[in-house]
Amino acid sequence: MTLPAHRYWAVVGTATVLSLALLACSSLSPGRTQPLIPSAAPTASHPGVGGCALTPDASPTATIEISHRTFSAAATVSAGEAVAFVNQDNTAHTITEGAGGHADDGACVRKRVAARLSTVVTFLLPGDYPITCTIHGSMQTTVHVR
Fold first, then answer.
1. What is the 3-state secondary structure (H, E, C) of 32-49?
2. What is the per-residue pLDDT for 132?
């Protein structure tokens, strides 16, 4: 049986997506989460999707505080280590890989952090991760991962 071209590519595309999702799920260790399907290949200067993941149960090795609409100093961690982002303000902020209030294409993290709450992100691949707040575009920091 021969499928029309548009149905053939729909089947091939679906199979590819499912294969990538299964591959991503099979490579996770317990307690780790990450996007299922990377949209771009990571590089040393821009790790991209899969370079970091929200890991609320991880024990952070570094902390970046958010206070008075600023991030504290940059953090340096090893690949596989987590950073806690602690929002001490009375307003929400975001933890977003990007700059100037805009997410990078393929940003590995885009997380809203409500006032007085925190989030933990594990950085999986070496590289420099620029972090911005999409609500307050002047807020910038960097996570350096060795």
1. CCCCCCCCCCCCCCCCCC
2. 98
Q: Give me the chain's average pLDDT, please.
A: 79
On the question of pLDDT at 130 being above 70, the answer is yes
Encoded amino acid at 63, one letter: T
Average pLDDT over residues 56-79: 97
Q: What is the Cα–Cα distance from 85 to 44, expressed in whole angstroms? A: 23
Strand 93-99 with 102-103, pairing: antiparallel
- From CA 138, how far away is CA 11, in angstroms rounded? 44
Length of the chain: 146
Alpha-carbon distance 146 to 132, whole Å? 20
Cα end-to-end distance, the chain, whole Å: 52
The residue written with tokens 């890991």 in the block is 55
- The number of angstroms, rounded, from the C-alpha of 58 to the middle of its chain's C-alpha atoms is 14
**Which residues are within 8 A (CB) of 30 and not within 5 positions of it... i.e. 6 or more apart?**
none
Beta bridge partners of 76: 144
Cβ(109)–Cβ(34) below 8 Å: no
Ramachandran bin of 68, using left for φ above 0, alpha for ψ from -120 to 50, beta for the remaining angles: left
